Amino acid sequence: IRLHRSDGTLIHIFANHSRDVGTLTTTRDGQHIISGANDGRVCVWNVASKDLVSTGEEHTDFVWALSVMPDGKRFLSGSKDTTVQMWLLNGELVNTFSELHDAAVSGLVALPDGHHAVCASWDTTIKLFCVDDGSVLRSIAVPQTVDETWAFI
């Protein structure tokens, strides 16, 4: 991961993934960068010190989606392994939601209330779920043809 100034000057290269980085996000305060990669890892980096804060290795396949919770202390990761996981910035795994989807999780959004999130999957569903207990509050099936598969991602 390369961090640049707005003029293009390289500030730092963050390196800890063994395969391609598929998704990035930052905490709302800008103090941390979170990366997810095709090695199944999620990494948290401190922007000021440039240090690796934590590495989570609980996913078994590509990590394609990340979303920071409104409290700025937790984040969600979604993977091709069909799971959504909740983490603390220090790398502690809080919860694994393995019953949400039957295919890769391709998108995640933590909602402002801090208790709910929305996830999208290659199984052509979008789900609203509670991050406190994993219960699905709403599931929407998205009709899709083969030609539209990549548009859903």
Task: Summarize it.
The protein has 153 residues and is mostly beta strands.
Give an account of the 3D structure:
The protein has 153 residues and is mostly beta strands. It has strands spanning 2-4, 10-13, 21-26, 32-37, 42-46, 52-56, 63-68, 74-79, 84-88, 93-97, 105-110, 116-121, 125-130, 136-141. Strands 3-4-5-6 form a 4-stranded antiparallel β-sheet, with no helix packed on it. A 4-stranded antiparallel β-sheet has the order 7-8-9-10, with no helix packed on it. The protein starts with a strand and ends in a 12-residue tail after the last strand. The model is unreliable at 149-153 (pLDDT under 50).
Any descriptors?
four-stranded antiparallel sheet; globular; mainly beta; disordered C terminus; 153 residues
Q: Radius of gyration over alpha carbons?
A: 16 Å
Report strand %: over 45%
Helix content: under 10%
The N- and C-terminal alpha carbons lie at a distance of: 22 Å
- Backbone structural class: mainly beta
Count every beta strand, where a strand is a DSSP E run of 2 or more residues.
14
Tally of helical runs: 0
The whole-number mean of residue pLDDT values reads: 88
Q: How would the global form be characterised?
A: globular
The largest sheet is: 4 strands, antiparallel
Strand/helix succession = EEEEEEEEEEEEEE
Unreliable spans = 149-153
Kindly report the spatial arrangement of strands forming the biggest sheet: 3-4-5-6
